[in-house]
Design goal:
The protein is of the alpha/beta class. The chain has helices at residues 28-39, 55-69, 122-139, 159-179, 193-201, 216-230, 233-249, 259-279, and strands at 21-26, 43-46, 84-89, 93-97, 103-104, 115-119, 144-149, 188-190. It has a five-stranded parallel sheet with strand order 2-1-3-7-8, sandwiched between helices. Strands 5-4-6 form a three-stranded antiparallel sheet, with no helix packed on it. The longest helix has 21 residues, at 159-179. It is globular and about 60 Å long.
Length: 281
């Protein structure tokens, strides 16, 4: 007898290497997943200008990050250019500054009367995301993009309105994947974080007290499914070696000033340096 409906995730066309350079942009769900990569020593940049909820703001972040960090495109691959980027979409709602007509990423606590709220169409979402993909491909032709839709619901739209917003993002993600799929390569892939929470976990015990945000347990499960889909054999081996070192570094001793703890911590740091030195070459 089946009591749950597991989401089937097809094998990925690429894999993520140990300590790989990555870029995470999007909703607070991108923060949750991206921080896991940072903790596990991937060279990940996570929402460098704050949380971004809509496709236009995802584009703005990619553009600004490139302008501030990619000074010499010909050397970008050897310096800071990601190999893998993850875009997590939260909503298709945007705010337009009335004075200039531009979409703003943050209202900076200015009066609401200065802005007009708008819902992006599927086509507009696709175009903003495609421009972000093209910017990344311009500095690294081998870049791969994973697009996800955040499972976090937006009560302020009403739950029907929240579902309509997610439906727009799901359609846009699907069309983006299709736009970049050829017989020889796949540039953009979709990871079903939204479906995992809503169709597989499907229980309020996986939501926080606000009944909107996934619990740490739910995020951990999504991380595990992501790892199963994208991590290379070398990455899994690295993580096996890293996690006991990570636990040792995070240990809170009863007496942090004792010589025994100082020696324990020093040895853990030495192990970390040796391990990272093997993979960061």
């Amino acid at each position: 007898m089946q009591f749950r409906t597991p989401v089937t995730i097809p094998p990925s066309s690429f894999s993520i290497s140990p300590c790989e350079r990555m870029l995470f942009v999007g909703s607070c769900f991108a923060d949750n997943i991206g921080r896991r990569f940072v903790d596990d020593k991937f060279r990940a940049v996570v929402n460098p200008y704050g949380v971004m909820y809509n496709p236009a703001s995802v584009l703005h972040t990619v553009r600004r990050w490139m302008e501030e960090n990619i000074i010499n495109p010909s050397a970008a691959i050897e310096t800071v250019a990601p190999q893998t980027a993850v875009f997590t979409l939260g909503t298709n709602h945007v705010y337009i500054l009335n004075e200039t007509g531009e979409i703003v990423d943050n209202c900076r606590k200015r009066p609401q009367r200065l802005f007009t709220e708008k819902e992006l169409s599927v086509e507009e979402c696709v175009e903003y995301l495609a421009e972000a993909v093209e910017l990344l491909r311009g500095i690294n032709s081998k870049v791969r993009v994973v697009v996800t839709v955040s499972p976090i619901r937006y009560a302020k739209y009403g739950f029907h309105g929240s579902q309509l917003s997610k439906a727009t993002l799901l359609l846009a993600a699907d069309r983006l994947v299709e736009r970049y799929r050829t017989e020889k390569s796949v540039v953009v892939e979709y990871f079903p974080a939204y479906e995992i929470v809503n169709d597989e976990l499907r229980d309020y015990r996986f939501y926080r007290e606000d009944m909107l945000h996934p619990t740490d347990q739910a995020v951990e499960y999504i991380w595990e499914r992501f790892a199963e889909t994208y991590f290379s054999e070398a990455t899994n081996k690295f993580l096996e070696e890293w996690r006991p070192i990570k636990a040792a570094l995070g240990h809170r001793p009863f007496n942090p000033d004792s010589e025994e703890y100082k020696e324990f911590l020093s040895k853990a740091k030495e192990k970390a340096e040796r391990l990272l030195g093997r993979y960061n070459e």
